[in-house]
Design brief:
The structure is a single chain. The chain is built from 10 helices and 7 strands. With about 250 residues, the chain is of the alpha/beta class. It has one domain: Rossmann fold. α2 links the parallel β2 and β3. It is globular. The model has no long low-confidence stretch (mean pLDDT about 95).
Length: about 250
């Protein structure tokens, strides 16, 4: 399927590894020029070079700490002409309410929750003035599963789900679409860090975690004109975990 993305400029945060790197690569394969943003410049440069070499599409590495407002301002000023914004950066720690300090809670939210909101705020007006653009928020199924042992992530993801649906319900007036993807378990280093040990995959849907490429495929499809009537919604890519939790 031709996703009609050739020539678009896409910015992907948290793009140096895992889901972010997979999304950037898939966008590049579809003909997008990409910008990957993250804190580790060496990792970013290596991934950007690999994506450019493998796909023939330009990929730029932009080192920035998106938990800082001034860094968001700088990135948004430099790349104000992006067609697609993929918010993906962030790692929220596991733990119950009494396990997580206020400082840890704020540090996690500064990057994932306020990072998403503030970068969207910084780029949305430029998209609206052009009458086109797409924001894709990579959120997480914790908002629906509501595991109290991951309460900081549950609450942050719930906020981003509401943010995506609220903004996306009205953004069509400006020609902009706002959508989300909420993955369940994904086979990344992040999953191993949260679990603390290798967990048996037998109890997981289809006997495995999702691959980063599966999440990337969903995100890139939603970002494409092929999905042009989709806004204000969050796609669950979790093997049905959240549907079972709701029942």
């Amino acid at each position: 399927m031709n996703l009609q993305l050739e020539g678009k400029l896409a910015l992907v945060t948290g793009g140096s590894k895992g889901i972010g790197a997979a999304i950037a690569r898939k966008l590049a394969e579809e003909g997008c020029e990409t910008v990957i943003v993250g804190r580790n410049s060496d990792q970013l440069e290596a991934i950007a070079a690999s994506i450019a070499a493998d796909t023939g599409s330009r990929c730029h590495a932009e080192a920035a700490d998106l938990s800082r407002s001034e860094a968001i301002t700088d990135v948004a000023a430099k790349w104000a002409h992006v067609d697609i914004l993929v918010n993906n950066a962030g790692a929220i720690p596991g733990g119950r309410l009494g396990d997580i300090s206020e400082a840890a809670w704020r540090e996690a939210w500064d990057l994932k929750v306020f990072g998403y909101i503030n970068l969207t705020r910084a780029l949305f007006d430029a998209m609206a003035k052009r009458g086109q653009g797409v924001v894709v928020n990579i959120i997480g199924a914790a908002a629906q599963i509501r595991d109290p042992s991951y309460i900081c992530g549950v609450t942050g993801n719930a906020a981003l789900t509401a943010f995506t649906m609220s903004l996306g319900s009205d953004s069509h007036r400006h020609g902009v679409r706002v959508v989300g993807v909420s993955p369940g378990p994904v086979a990344t280093e992040r999953l191993q860090q949260l679990l603390g040990a290798v967990e048996s995959s037998a109890a997981r849907p289809f006997g495995r975690a999702a691959s980063p490429e599966e999440i990337a495929a969903a995100a890139v499809f939603l970002a494409s004109p092929i999905s042009g009537y989709t806004t204000g919604t969050v796609l669950m890519v979790d093997g049905g975990i959240s549907a079972r939790a709701a029942s």
